[in-house]
Amino acid sequence: MFTLFKRVLIGQPLKSKDLGEQKLNKTKALAILSSDALSSVAYGPEQILLVLMALGAVAYWLSIPIAIGILVLLVALVLSYRQIIFAYPHGGGAYVVSKENLGVNSGLLAGGALLVDYILTVAVSISAGTDAITSAFPSLHGYNVLIACLLVILITILNLRGLTESASVLAYPVYLFVAILFLTIAVGLYKVLTGQISPELHTSFGTPIAGLSLFLLLRAFASGSSALTGVEAISNAIPNFKSPAPNNAAKTLAAMGILLAILFSGIVFLAYYYGISPKVEETVVSQIASATFGRGVMYYIIQGITAMILVLAANTGYSAFPLLAVNLAKDKYIARMFTVRGDRLGYSNGILFLATASILLIIMFKGQTEHLIPLYAVGVFIPFTLAQTGMLVKWLREKPAGWRFKLTINAIGAAISFLVMMIFFITKFPQVWPVLIFLPLIVLFFRSIHKHYEDVGDQLRISSCEPHKPIEGNVFIIPVAGITHVVENTLNYAKSLHPDQIIAVYVAFDKESEKAFEEKWSHWQPDVRLVTLYSQYRSIIQPLTKFVDTVEYKAKESNFQVTVLIPQFIPKKQWHNALHNQSSLLIRAFLLYRRDLIVTTVPYHFKK
Fold it and tell me: Where does this protein reside within or beyond the cell (predicted)?
């Protein structure tokens, strides 16, 4: 029944040879890997105006030069990540660049920051989309958390169905969002050029502003730079592209950069020319749509599509998180399970982990993740800075053809990214200080996992293992609870292996049952030694483990191997297990981790 349910949800398993068919073309990759970056135009321009609002509407003209500065950073990032794509065509992005050029700790810092950032991407995007839905339908406001969790589950199922299938579904809303914003910007610019929008709505460019400071300008610039989140996702997901993967990834990155630049510039310009001021109850995009088309059908279409893209922005995390996790797992810094492909050839463990972590965040913060946005933004600019600094080191070390131009691009990008990161830390320290604690802890956690894998490798390697002493004989201990077919089956199995000695052990809770069992055993299995143990505290485990210790101590003197054979019956239906006390599982759990002891379960299957 579970298998049938699973097949309905995620489809039939795909063969390994079908992996090539699961690769993305540029059109689909642009949609699912750029949804986070493109959706940020819905809130990035607003973040600039929220800071400038402290100086009054007269300062809104500053949004234009600030936007130009953000576009310069965007160009530097796109060119930088384009170089990363060709330099590291197997993916990994900031993690691989930082690890190879700045050292392991820098790489783990970048990788950890990006993993957390992708989890925040899902939680924040889904919560923002849910808010947009419940704003349209206020009666649903009390169900924000439930709706957000259901949306996470829905997108998770889509991604578990496979890369191409999820891309086919999710591409349409993304391109619809791009088209509708292009239309809004085009109509808005037409109204501006034809004089339908009064120039008196906005202050003139260059109007003097009282109280203006460099600190406030930098803060507005940093806040607006939140529109650049998700730019790095394509460099992490190169293996998902069809061949030639690096070329297709680079073209997709360039297309994303151009679209993001046009949409961001258009929204900022219209917001300035329309004289729009941020409102708690209405977004800047909503105000632009209202001023451009009025409160008609077109307005509600724009709002609906914007809400949809905010939800689908989470898919960037689903695309990039599993691949980054694969790179970390291959280097033995997180669990190897993240390298396993699921039934539909996707890295399903990474997808499920991301979904679970995101749902926990949504529940913990009750769907109100506004104060996670600064963490979300600073979490992006740490890898930005490390990746571009790593590329600086690479060009200085290798000095390939044209390295000076490449060095200049990365130097500009690294300097601006570092500046933005520091502005976030300085201006939003109360919100972002946890980064200074949990990122080092994540690095230590990665290091601990790596040490574990190294220790395991050392102990498994034949050349480094201590030679084992030869086994001179075998002693089997069989815990028995009665005279049954289950015990008989285990005894027959033990006898077929011809051990040196078989010892049956019975734990009695009273003297009468102890004597009665000894008498029955002597008639049933006279050739098998029985040891009865009296347990005055009604514990099976304690007397049994003490007896095993005694036998092991004596067996070591003769180089004998002690094996505990545990009889266990298997009911015909799984739910029947709940009707039995599962003593065999309890004994196994206690004995399994004891050194130099072999624990074997001998199953006996019921027929009805």
Answer: Membrane
Q: Rg of the chain over CA atoms, in angstroms?
A: 32
Distance of alpha carbon 122 from alpha carbon 373, whole angstroms? 12
Mean pLDDT, residues 128-145 taken together = 78
Distance CA 114, CA 116 (A): 5
Distances (CA, A) of 80 to 112, 231, 413: 21, 11, 7
Residue 242 has a CB neighbour count (10 Å cut-off) of: 16
98-114 per-position pLDDT tens digit? 999 999 999 999 999 98
Helices (H) and strands (E) in the chain, counts: 23, 5
pLDDT of residue 261: 93
Place of tokens 């260059």: 206
* Burial of 588 (C-beta count, 10 Å sphere; 0-12/13-18/19+): middle
Residue 153: CB partners within 8 Å, gap ≥ 6? 355, 359
Alpha carbon distance 515, 466 (integer Å): 46
Task: Name the amino acid, one letter, at 406.
Answer: K
The H-assigned helical ranges of 11-103 are 26-39, 44-52, 63-87, 93-102
**Range with top average pLDDT, 85-94, 123-132, 295-304, 561-570:** 561-570
Contact residues for 128 (Cβ-Cβ < 8 A; gap 6+): 43, 310, 311, 369
Half-sphere exposure of 488 (CA within 13 A, CB side): 5
Dihedrals phi, psi of 281, to nearest 5 degrees: -90, -5
Max alpha carbon distance in the chain (Å)?
109
| Residue 286 · residue 303 · CB < 8 Å | yes
Q: Which residues pair with 563 in a beta bridge?
A: 476, 598
CB 328 within 8 A of CB 445: no
Task: Note the pLDDT tens digit of each residue in 50-98.
Answer: 888 888 888 888 889 999 999 988 998 898 888 888 888 887 788 989 9
Backbone phi and psi for residue 301, each to the nearest 5 degrees, phi listed first:
-65, -45
- Count of CB atoms situated within 10 Å of the CB of 545: 17
Reported as a single tens digit per residue, the pLDDT across 240-264 is 888 888 899 999 999 999 999 999 9
Binned at pLDDT 50, 70 and 90, residue 225 comes out as: confident
Contact (CB, 8 A) for 590 and 557: no
Q: What pTM was computed for the model?
A: 0.79
Q: Which residue type does 515 have?
A: K
In the block, residue with structure tokens 């321009």: 45
* Alpha-carbon 608 to chain mean position: 44
Collapsed DSSP state (helix, strand, coil) of residue 194? coil
Q: Are 237 and 54 in contact (CB under 8 A)?
A: no
What's the sign of the alpha-carbon dihedral 143, 149, 152, 153? negative
For residue 49, which of 277, 254, 325 has the smallest C-alpha distance?
Answer: 277
In angstroms, the CA 565 to CA 585 distance is 12
Coil, strand or helix: which one is 566? strand
DSSP string for residues in 241-292: BPSSHHHHHHHHHHHHHHHHHHHHHHHHHHHHHTT----SSS-HHHHHHHHH
User: Distance between CA 334 and CA 450 in Å, rounded?
Assistant: 7
Where does residue 566 fall: left (phi above 0), alpha (psi -120 to 50 degrees), or beta otherwise?
Answer: beta
Closest CA to 503 of 461, 442, 554, 557: 554
